[in-house]
Amino acid sequence: MNGRSMRTWRTGLALLGALVLLSIVAVEPPDKKVAADASGTVETDSGDEGGGGPAEEGPTEDTAVDPNNPEATGVTTPDGKPVTGGPATTVKQGTATGRNYECKAGRNGGNTDRGVTGNRINLASTNVRSGTGSSFLGTSYIGMQAVVNRVNAAGGICGRLLSLRLVDDAWNPATGNGYLQTFSKGDYFALPVVPSSEGLTLAITNRTISSAGIPVVGTDGMLKEQYADPWVWPVATSTVSTMRIMAKYAHDNGAKSFGIVYDTRYKFGEEGAEAFKAYVNQLTAKDPAAYVGIEPGQGNYAGPAKKFNDECGANGCDFVAMLLTPETATTYISSQTDKDGRRQGFGRLMTGGAQPLFNERFGRDCGKPCDGMLVWTGYNPPIGRLSSEKDVAAYVDDVRSVDPGVDVNNQFLEGAYLGMKVFVDALQKVGPDLTRKRMQEVMNSMRYESSLSSPLQWSATQRFANQAAQPFRIVTASNSFAGFAEVGTGFLPDPTPGVVPKD
User: Fold this and answer.
1) Predicted TM-score (pTM) above 0.90
2) What pLDDT sits at residue 342?
3) What CA–CA distance (Å, rounded) separates 226 from 164?
4) 8 Å CB contact between 54 and 43
5) In terms of CB atoms within 10 Å, which end of the chain has fewer, N or C?
6) 305 class by beta-carbon count within 10 Å (0-12 exposed, 13-18 middle, 19+ buried)
7) Residue 258 CA to chain centroid, in angstroms?
8) Rounded to whole angstroms, how far apart are CA atoms 269 and 181?
9) What angle do CA 171, 175, 178 make, to 5 degrees?
10) Helices (H), ranges, 353-410
């Protein structure tokens, strides 16, 4: 065979491989229409796996993966050896199961559990690509997709490719719960990451997750319910932990009076505000001077802004916490800024924004008024010296391979990527005899170390794996957002880890 024929043959093989993997990552379109009834189930015209689930309407956006790509990033076999080639990698399974399976196609045990075949692991998840939450959760799916692409390009796990279905639920609790109910009854092995916290919370409280015994690995930790279910393992620093860390940092740096403005519609707002209030009381023996909840989606917050300023008093509060989504925060801040762009309603010493405000879009929309504002994350973003950390650099490369223009500083994108990496690591530790029960056992004794975060560790009774956060400063130049700067604190620990406010 001459050189030209050889090149043609190789090109044909690559195209064939891409076609075979065309639907490995299926992202449902964000404008997909679903309706939710009062009971929280999703109604459709034709139903879906088991009935009563999301409709299968409209095209999907698929990502092709080249199985001949030999580059593997962080993919290992169950005994820790790096995977550098395709599906021919062979590692014998240990004797814990008493089964003579091997970590390769044709010898991996085939259909070992629901959603598992000899060459595929079916996964599903809800994400947020429309509605209010999309401003900070909208790119989370890119982090998940980037990890799937890397794993599948290296031949999958023990001869099985990952097949991930992502469905937009617009951060609507009933819609998201309906999807998760359907997935829990369908042919899916697990629900990795589940970036849409509202629907997940409902699915946890109504026991959809625990009754199905379906693993939910790598969640965003926004709500306390994620830390109590035996089938859910968060990777993020919880909202309540972040609010306490913010308050302690401010107090340690001279703040004596505190204020908070928080979202009253979405559960993370009231839950985080209550934790902030309780800890400020513990620090100062008094409640925050200003404690103002606002309904998102309003065109102007002049009334709540005046109330907040009045409660803080003539000298203002030393520290102000904002527990808001980006759109609400931008509108609220503009309601407190005079015609010259001078800030009103911010902390006299400092202002802190919780995790949803750690993204470039908020920085650009806010501009000059937010100069110097601290925004908090439970991860190491690619900022300053941290960008050269091995795992941080790999994260940037991986997500930009999916979307070159994605905001790599968004803490929910980084968290979704890390959550998917943890899930893959657990799959590798389970090995070829893949069952949900074995996944639970592995996660309940899991320790995961990465420069993306502080070390993470879970147990059967401990789900607060990430208990630290750190601040970065918003920087503006010529009245415009110029980026984020390190404050240099490193990760600060939750002063009262594991404590959650009562309902």
Assistant:
1) no
2) 62
3) 22
4) no
5) C
6) buried
7) 29
8) 25
9) 135
10) 360-366, 390-402
